[in-house]
Amino acid sequence: MKHVYGWLLLTPAAILLVGFTHYPAAATLIDSFFSTATAVRPSRFVGFGNYASLAADPVFWKVLGNNFRFALGTIPTSIALAMVMALWVNRRLPARGLVRMAYFTPTVLPMIAVANLWLYFYTPQIGLLDKIGALFGAPSHNWLGDPDTVLACTMVMVVWKEAGFFMIFYLAALQTLPPELQEAASIEGASRWYFFRRVTFPLLMPTTLFVLVNATINSFKLVDHLFIMTKGGPDNASSLLLYYIYQVAFSFFDTAYASTLTVVLLLLLAGLALAQFLLIERRVHYR
Amino acid sequence: MNVSGNRILPLETGAAWLLALLWLSPLLYAFWAAFHPAELATHFRLLAPLTLQNFAKAWTYAPFPRHLLNTVILVTMILAAQFVLCTLAGYAFARFEFAGRDIAFGLVLVQLMVMPEVLIVENYRIMAHLGLVDTIIGIGLPYMASAFGIFLLRQTFKTVPRELEDAARVEGCGFLGVLWRVYVPLARPTYLAYGLVSVSYHWNNFLWPLIVTNSVTTRPLTVGLAIFGAPESGVDWAVISAGTIMAISPLLVAFLLFQRQFMQSFMRAGIK
Fold it and tell me: What is the pTM of this model?
């Protein structure tokens, strides 16, 4: 009887999960071996044909490279900032609540709104960045129009958006650290920096790993800002894998190739899932 | 205690405040621009005249009330469905021994990584087959069975002492009665935490709603805002700021009022 009840309770959720996660994931894989159907030519089996075009597609390699640069540029910076923020907010700081709120606020804003605001900062001449630059005599610069600066501009914005979110995980971890450690350290006369380096930082390591994996997963899903700020341009300099999938599927209507790109994204996410399992699950499974 | 650890140097206090100001400045700047005439948006003068003109313009340029209504319907619908589906599934995983349970749980967790927005190509095709393109249900359906919600509730239900369940059974509760009278009330903090995270997520979600909608009657705020704020729309920045502020203010106000709950919810939900 327990079997029946168990499955009965699970069924409604299971139908939706299979329908919108497992089935589409499997269908994506199958589609990647077929050509896109057109009005004159139905879809046919092409083996690894789509993967061959993928390997030869310079845009694919570019967006993949961008994704890694985006991850490398945003994650360590946000994590370091998050740690500093948490250490500050955890102390007896005057107006602590206000400071904590300021750090966390970007987290509750939609990426689209954030992009709307930041787009304006980067506008040549009238934008805030150029205005500040002008005070120091710097020439006007088209920040989002220059392939050399556009990705970095989006990274700064994402660090601003994410650091406060990661801060709360460090804050939670800091609050579980026993105060005796601190007392012992002050009796021994350890400096603040020494205490941080040898005690706090190592004890925060599980949190850092958790944040690291989640931030990496996030970096593959954060594409909303591109719709407002750059449309992936100029010359795909700011484009990311998921945005390219969107373009291929819904602007170029090449669904088979979009599926092939999605398979790559799924493989990357699977790799991250494995990393999370090996690095973190061992720690989390105490419950 | 806390002799040296919690003491903070004046220099650090300054740095923390400066960073806080820096962090708030994009938002403060948007408020400045929204409440001043467009030509003053980029010139700071303390006594510049205030105006609500930009809000009035934004209000007429885009159907904000409709987008807001769509978002509220969407978020409420998703949350209600998530509560029901995740409660049932979480209960099954926490308290029932059934064949294939562990494999099924593993398969559920796959969705933590592969969120519906990753599978936009196939999910759009499915919605087209179901005839749900450009409907609010079509936006919400892929998110209703949330692996995250199932996982959170399973973890919470597992901590409920068996004795309480046994007592309820003696009183004559069936297995659904036990769920409703024992498990659900005890999991209230988890529901609050998950609810806040879910509402924030779907209030702000953009990519999938963009793909699956194509008319004013279904588009949520984020999609409306994107169309309105895109550079090619030619709307000036003061009006865009006003529109952006209108779109974010409900959630922002909720956050400012219930800061502690928000942060604790995100924390609880993240740490699992």
Answer: 0.89
